[in-house]
Amino acid sequence: MAGSSVSSAPVSSPAAPRVLVGPRPARFATDAVEAGGGRVVAAEEQPEAVVWLDPRDMAGLASLLQELPTVRWVQLPFAGVERAVEAGLIDPARRWSCAKGAYAEPVAEHALALALGGLRRLPERARASSWGEQGGISLYDQPVCIVGGGGIAQALLGLLAPFRARATVVRRRPDPVPGAERVLRPDRLHDAVADALVVVLCLALTPETRGLVDESVLRAMRPDAWLVNVARGGHVVTDDLVRALEEGWIGGAALDVTDPEPLPEGHPLWQLPTCLITPHTADTWEMIRPLLARRVQENVARFARGEPLVGEVDPSAGY
């Protein structure tokens, strides 16, 4: 039709990427691949991409990739990629994406629950067998330090907003973060924790951040402050934390992750009344399955179109 802006030429759509789901098929993942426009294939069909679902089997992934030189992209199931990095898998020869940001909301929810549980003395009350004394601290209008500036931090800032918490974010780039009063570089960590009632760890574990919270940081915190860790246990020097709790340097610690993990029976942290521990349940499989499916679907569609992936890993940074 004359004057029409609609082209009569056929519009080509991107070819369906060939995707292997491993180490074994899972219905939610195959459905997500197909919903993203991909085609689930077996190893002998020369897959272009792998969706890997077992966070503990890095050896299996390494073996698979050695056999499949056609793979140009790997989707990992976890947010922190230190296991893949330690296995020597993350390299620029392929594109890598992970689940960073995908599980931010449930993890931030758990961080807030741990903080409130600590401030309201729930570890003590959970162990109590008598009425005891009244006590507890309100989070309203209190300073909070969030170490890490990714999706979990952003989700947590949204949850803290109704509490009118005055948030400081510690991150590598000191760019403004919505909801935070100030943003400081990691070399200002001691300043950041000095006045915080709650210090939340939600950053990636890298060689630079391993053992970040040591005796010097714990001694810089307020004597009534609570440390909340929903990142990785390796961020904290466990022996220093035990001493800090035993000697009252800080108010308490609420940990969803520990070093070592699982925390062995009889470990001193189990016995401390100011320590609240959950067994890495900030994001259970039931919670993350639909969120991972959403990430897989979106990234398959982006891979087909040649677009940047969500949660793409920077091999030079290690996350």
What can be said about this structure in brief?
By secondary structure, the chain is an alpha/beta fold. 32% of the residues lie in helices and 14% in strands. The protein folds into 2 domains: 18-102 and 285-305, NAD(P)-binding Rossmann-like Domain (Rossmann fold, 3-Layer(aba) Sandwich); 104-128 and 135-277, NAD(P)-binding Rossmann-like Domain (Rossmann fold), CATH 3.40.50.720.
Describe the structure.
The protein is elongated and about 65 Å long. With 319 residues, it is α/β, with parallel strands linked by helices. The longest helix is centred in the C-terminal third of the chain and has 21 residues. The strands form 2 sheets. It has a 7-stranded parallel beta sheet with strand order 8-7-6-9-10-11-12. It comes from Aciditerrimonas ferrireducens. This is D-isomer specific 2-hydroxyacid dehydrogenase family protein. InterPro entries: D-isomer_DH_CS, D-isomer_DH_NAD-bd, NAD(P)-bd_dom_sf. Keywords: NAD, Oxidoreductase.
